[in-house]
Write a structure and sequence with these properties.
The protein contains 14 helices and nine strands. 39% of the residues lie in helices and 10% in strands. The chain has helices at 41-50, 68-78, 100-103, 109-118, 147-160, 170-177, 188-200, 211-216, 220-229, 237-243, 246-255, 298-311, 316-322, 324-327; strands at residues 20-22, 34-36, 58-61, 87-88, 124-127, 139-144, 205-210, 257-258, 264-265. With 329 residues, it is α/β, with parallel strands linked by helices.
C-alpha cells in the first residue's frame, strides 16, 4: 500500500454522541433520567441536603423546549418582576426564576442558598428535573408541548449549544437520542407520566398547561390559570398576552440572554430559524405548532408510531392528556 492510500478498514468514523449523563444514581431519580453536564451530581446532593424548601415555593418544571421561557415570562408579568432587557434562562440567581439545580452545581452554592433563604415568598424556580429530584414541598407549573415539535426544537437546541458537544443529524437525534430517552430529562413519556400520576394521587399541587392551547388564544386562558394558581388577583390579561407573544419574546431574545453575572450575551441570538438540514442556535427560534411535519420522513414516522405503541400501557395519563390521535399526528 502506498503512502497516499488509506486503509478504510483500519478506522471508523465515530458516531455522534450526546453530552448528557444519566442520573439514575441520584436520590429519587426515575430510571434513566438524563441531564446536561452543567447540572452535577454534587449539585443535586446540595439541593437535597442543604436547600430549605417552603410550602409556597413554585417551580416551572418542564421537559426542555416545551415553552419554559414563555411560561416564566408570563409569570414575570403577573408578579411585575420583568427584566428590563434580554431573556432570562435562569442562569442569573438575581433573576425572577433562577435555575435552582444549576445554581446548586456552582462553586458558590452556599452563598446562593443563603440569598434564596432571605428571598420573600413565594419564591419561583426553574427546573428540568424529574419530580423525584425536586425538593418537596413544592408547587408545580408544567407546560407540555407535543413531543414531535419538542424533539424538533430540541435538535436545534443541542446543535446550537456547545455544552452538548453534539453534531448529529436530525435523523440520528430523533432515532438514536429522542426515542431512546437519552436527551436531557430522559424519556418524554416517562418524564410527564410521573408528574401526572403524582398529581392524581394528591402528592403534589400542580398546574398543567398545553403549549398548543396557549398558541390558540395567545395564552389568554393560560394567563388566567397561572394567576389563579399563584394567587394574583389584579392583572391586565390582554396586555400580558400582547407583551409575551412570540414576536415580543423574539425581540427581547435578540437583546441577549442574561448570564450568571447579569450581563447580556448574544451567543444564543440568531435570525436563522434553520431546517432539518441546517440547525439554528437561536433559543427563541420558531415557536409554531406542527412544524414536525416538515422534519419526519415516512420511515421516521413509522418509528414514532411503533414507539408510541410501546408507551400506551405504562403512560396512560400522557395518552389521556394529548389523546392517541393527536400524538400520532
Amino acid at each position: 500500500m502506498s503512502e497516499t492510500e488509506i486503509d478504510t478498514n483500519s478506522f471508523q468514523i465515530p458516531l455522534p454522541k450526546m453530552n448528557c449523563i444519566p442520573r439514575s444514581f441520584d436520590v429519587n431519580a426515575i430510571e434513566n433520567f438524563y441531564t446536561c453536564t452543567i447540572i452535577t451530581k454534587s449539585g443535586m446532593e446540595n439541593v437535597f441536603n442543604h436547600f430549605l424548601p417552603r410550602d409556597s415555593d413554585i417551580y416551572v418544571t418542564t421537559y426542555p423546549k416545551s415553552g419554559t421561557t414563555w411560561t416564566i415570562s408570563i409569570l414575570e408579568h403577573l408578579v411585575e418582576k420583568i427584566s428590563e432587557k434580554g431573556i432570562s434562562l435562569g442562569f442569573c440567581t438575581e433573576s425572577f426564576s433562577p435555575w435552582l439545580d444549576m445554581a446548586a452545581s456552582t462553586e458558590n452554592w452556599k452563598s446562593t442558598f443563603l440569598k434564596f433563604e432571605k428571598a420573600p415568598s413565594p419564591r419561583f424556580f426553574k427546573s428540568h428535573a424529574s419530580l423525584g429530584l425536586i425538593k418537596q414541598p413544592a408547587r408545580i407549573i408544567q407546560c407540555i408541548r407535543h413531543p414531535l415539535d419538542t424533539f424538533v426544537s430540541a435538535w436545534h437546541h443541542v446543535r446550537g449549544k456547545e455544552v452538548f458537544e453534539y453534531n448529529g443529524s436530525w435523523h440520528h437525534f430523533f432515532s438514536e437520542v429522542a426515542l431512546t430517552g437519552k436527551f436531557e430529562s430522559g424519556d418524554w413519556f416517562d418524564y410527564h407520566e410521573e408528574f401526572f400520576k403524582a398529581s392524581e394521587e394528591g402528592k403534589i399541587e400542580a398546574l398543567f398547561l398545553k403549549y398548543e392551547d396557549m398558541k390558540k388564544d395567545n395564552a389568554i386562558s393560560a394567563i388566567h390559570k397561572l394567576a389563579k394558581f399563584i394567587e394574583v388577583e389584579y392583572y391586565d390579561v390582554e396586555e400580558i398576552s400582547k407583551t409575551t407573544n412570540f414576536t415580543k419574546m423574539k425581540e427581547k431574545s435578540n437583546q441577549g440572554h442574561i448570564e450568571k453575572d447579569g450581563s447580556l450575551s448574544n451567543v444564543l441570538v440568531s435570525q436563522e430559524i434553520g431546517d432539518k438540514n441546517i440547525p439554528s442556535k437561536a433559543h427563541i427560534r420558531k415557536g409554531i405548532v406542527g412544524d414536525w411535519k416538515n422534519y419526519l420522513s415516512d420511515s421516521e414516522f413509522n418509528l414514532w408510531r411503533n414507539y408510541v405503541e410501546t408507551k400506551k400501557a405504562s403512560c396512560p395519563h400522557v395518552i389521556d392528556f394529548f389523546s392517541l390521535e393527536n400524538l400520532l399526528g
